[in-house]
Design brief:
Elements (H helix, E strand, L loop, with lengths): L6 E6 L4 E6 L5 E7 L3 H4 L4 H11 L8 E5 L12 E3 L2 E2 L8 E2 L7 E3 L2 E4 L6 E3 L2 H11 L5 E4 L4 E7 L2 E8 L1 H11 L17 H12 L4 H15 L3 H19 L7 E6 L1 H13 L3 E6 H19 L7
Parallel strand pairs: 1-4, 4-8, 5-9, 11-14, 14-15
Antiparallel strand pairs: 1-2, 2-3, 6-13, 7-8, 9-10, 11-12, 12-13
Helix pairs in contact: 3-9, 4-7, 5-7, 6-7
C-alpha cells in the first residue's frame, strides 16, 4: 500500500466543499471539508479556494484534480454538461471537461439527464456516487440517494436507464420553517429514526400518498386539539414526506434497494425502508463518491491521455 498522494478528489456542491488526497489505491491520506459551496466562492474564484485548501494540505503542484458536483453547473466554475440516459456510469470519466488556464490538470465530471418533454430530470454529483455504488454493489437495479433533492435510480448492469428526483428534503425545510406547520414543529431538533411517529408517518405517506396534504394539516390540528408535542409532529412530518416519496418512486415490499447515504439521512431512510418491507443494502455515500471520483479519473487517464489541460 502506498502512502504517496496520487490524486485530489473533490465533491463541490452548492453549499458544501469536500476534498480528499488519495493514494493510488484510493486510501484517504488527508481531507478538508468546508461550507465553501458554489454559492460562496463565485467572487473569490474557484481556483483560489481550491489552491488554498491544497496549500493547507501541502499538496504538490503536480497533483491532478477530479471534481464532481455543482462546480460543473452553468453557474459554476466550468460547465461540464450532461450525458443523456441511458448512460454507462463506468465511462463518464471519458466525457469529463478539462478546466482551462490552470497550473495543474483539473477535470470536472459531467452530470446525467433524462430528456423527456413530460418529466425531464437532471443530476450532478450523484452520477459519481452512483459509479462508486455500482462498484460496491454490482448487479444492483435500484438505488435510493437521499438528500435535499432525493434521487431514485434504475440501473441495468452499469447503465443508468432512468432516474427521478424528489424534493423531499427541501419540502421538509420549507414546511417546518415557513408555513403554518412551523408553529407545530418549532425547533431544530433531529428526527429519531426509531420514533413511532416517524415510522407511522412513513407508512401513512407510502400507503395513501393522495392524502398527503390532508395529513400535513392534521399535524397542526393534532397540536391544537390534543397538544401533540413538537418533536412528535416534526417526526411525523418527516415520515409523511419520505413515505410519499416512496410511493412516487414505486417502492415495493420485498424488493432490494441500495441506499447510498451517510449520517442522519442514512439512519432515517434505512428505518423507513425497513418499515415498508424493503431489503436494504447500505452504501456509505462518502466512500461511494471517493471511489467514483478515483474510477472516473483512471478512466479519463486511460482513454483521454492525449487531451492536455490548457
Amino acid at each position: 500500500m502506498t502512502t504517496s498522494p496520487a490524486l485530489v478528489a473533490v465533491d463541490w456542491g452548492t453549499t458544501s466543499f469536500r476534498l480528499w488526497l488519495l493514494s493510488r489505491d484510493g486510501t484517504v491520506l488527508a481531507e478538508h471539508r468546508s461550507q465553501e459551496g458554489m454559492s460562496e466562492v463565485v467572487e473569490r474564484g474557484f481556483e483560489t479556494v481550491l489552491e488554498n485548501h491544497l496549500q493547507a494540505l501541502s499538496a504538490t503542484a503536480t497533483l491532478p484534480v477530479v471534481i464532481c458536483g455543482m462546480a460543473g453547473s452553468r453557474q459554476g466554475w466550468v460547465e461540464a454538461g450532461y450525458i443523456d440516459t441511458p448512460a454507462d456510469v463506468t465511462t463518464i470519466g471519458a466525457r469529463a471537461t478539462i478546466v482551462p488556464d490552470t497550473a495543474r490538470q483539473i477535470i470536472i465530471i459531467p452530470g446525467l439527464a433524462v430528456r423527456s418533454e413530460s418529466e425531464p430530470d437532471v443530476m450532478r454529483g450523484e452520477e459519481t456516487q452512483l459509479l462508486g455504488a455500482h462498484l460496491e454493489m454490482p448487479g444492483g437495479e435500484r438505488y435510493c440517494m437521499p438528500g435535499t433533492h432525493s434521487k431514485w435510480v434504475s440501473m441495468k448492469g452499469a447503465s443508468v436507464t432512468g432516474f427521478e428526483t424528489f424534493m423531499t428534503g427541501e419540502l421538509f425545510s420549507v414546511l417546518s420553517g415557513k408555513t403554518i406547520l412551523m408553529h407545530s414543529t418549532d425547533g431544530e431538533g433531529k428526527v429519531d429514526a426509531n420514533d413511532p411517529a416517524f415510522l407511522t408517518g412513513v407508512r401513512d405517506g407510502w400507503a395513501r400518498p393522495e392524502k398527503t396534504t390532508h395529513h400535513l394539516f392534521s399535524i397542526r390540528a393534532g397540536q391544537l386539539l390534543y397538544n401533540h408535542p413538537a418533536d412528535e409532529n416534526r417526526a411525523r412530518l418527516s415520515g409523511l414526506l419520505i413515505g410519499a416519496e416512496f410511493a412516487g418512486a414505486g417502492v415495493r415490499g420485498g424488493e432490494q434497494i441500495g441506499l447510498v447515504a451517510s449520517g442522519a439521512l442514512q439512519r432515517l431512510y434505512h428505518a423507513a425502508l425497513l418499515a415498508c418491507g424493503v431489503k436494504v443494502r447500505d452504501i456509505d455515500a462518502d466512500v461511494a463518491v471517493r471511489r467514483g471520483l478515483m474510477e472516473s479519473w483512471q478512466h479519463f487517464s486511460n482513454t483521454c491521455g492525449d487531451r492536455k489541460h490548457a
